[in-house]
Specification:
Blueprint (H helix, E strand, L loop, with lengths): L2 H8 L3 H10 L17 H15 L4 H9 L4 H37 L10 H9 L6 H16 L2 H16 L1 H15 L11 H11 L2 H15 L2 H8 L3 H20 L3
Length: 259
């Protein structure tokens, strides 16, 4: 048989047959005097086996291991690994579908955050805040989304738990909204604007004791982390000056115990 004939018989393409030769999966047949390959039944059997194994989900390196083991021990091991891998994929898909069901319910109820899919904990936190027109507040929401996506789950849950007082205290939430609006007003201000110091102090004073350790710790860590500088670069110079003084004040307050 010519290469096109055996490929059609096995249900693969001539290109696949050549690739299997290249990988050593399929032995090269003898050639006829005119130089054409002359395939026999043995080659068709091997090709059919390769096709069945790849349809099961095995990669070609795994297929090579299976074909090299005449007693079938390698096949049993590979199939067991494949089954375990499929089970992991199935569990991951079910977890994703469960998350999608929550998002669909939020969308139907009108509580899906404008920023898009986030963890249930952050969705609950953001949903508790009243809509805000503050650009600075919007940036902080985006920073929370970044933490939500990148922080280890335990660290993320600790941060969200510490921020819950903002959502549970309407008076505190309103106070923070006022401070955010004053921070917005510094967008085009000079880095030495006299409003910077008082606003930083008021931001620090508004932080509840339950959040003090968290925010002070984040401030200390961010000084040594590229993300900290990137966060500051996201704000105008005067606004960044407020944030620096705010974090310094929190660190000092944490060192004193409570303020």
């Amino acid at each position: 048989m010519r290469i096109g004939e055996i490929a059609a018989l096995a249900g693969v393409t001539p290109r696949a047959v050549r690739h299997y030769h290249h990988l050593g999966l399929l032995p090269e047949p003898d050639r006829l005097p005119n130089g054409y390959r002359d395939y026999g039944v043995r080659h068709a059997v091997v090709l059919a086996r390769i096709r069945r194994l790849t349809e099961l989900g095995l990669g070609l390196p795994e297929v090579r291991d299976v074909l090299a083991d005449d007693e079938g021990r390698e096949l049993a091991e590979v199939l067991q690994e494949l089954d375990e891998d499929l089970a992991r994929q199935e569990a991951a898909i079910e977890e994703l579908r469960a998350r999608l069901r929550v998002l669909l319910e939020q969308a139907k109820a009108g509580t899906l955050p404008a920023e898009g899919p986030v963890s249930p904990g952050l969705a609950e936190l953001l949903g508790a805040f009243s809509p805000s027109r503050s650009a600075s507040a919007a940036k902080d929401r985006q920073h929370l989304m970044l933490i939500d996506s990148m922080a280890p789950s335990e660290e993320r849950d600790r941060i969200l738990a510490a921020l819950r007082p903002l959502a549970q205290d309407p008076g505190l939430a309103a106070r923070m909204q006022e401070l955010y609006e004053r921070l917005d007003a510094l967008e085009h201000a000079a880095p030495d604007d006299p409003r910077i110091g008082p606003l930083a102090e008021e931001f620090a004073a508004a932080v509840p004791d339950t959040m003090l350790g968290l925010l002070a710790g984040v401030g200390d860590a961010s000084r040594e982390h590229p993300y900290g500088q990137a966060l500051l670069d996201d704000f105008a110079p005067a606004q960044a000056a407020v944030i620096r003084r705010f974090m310094t004040a929190l660190t000092a307050r944490a060192g004193r115990g409570t303020g």
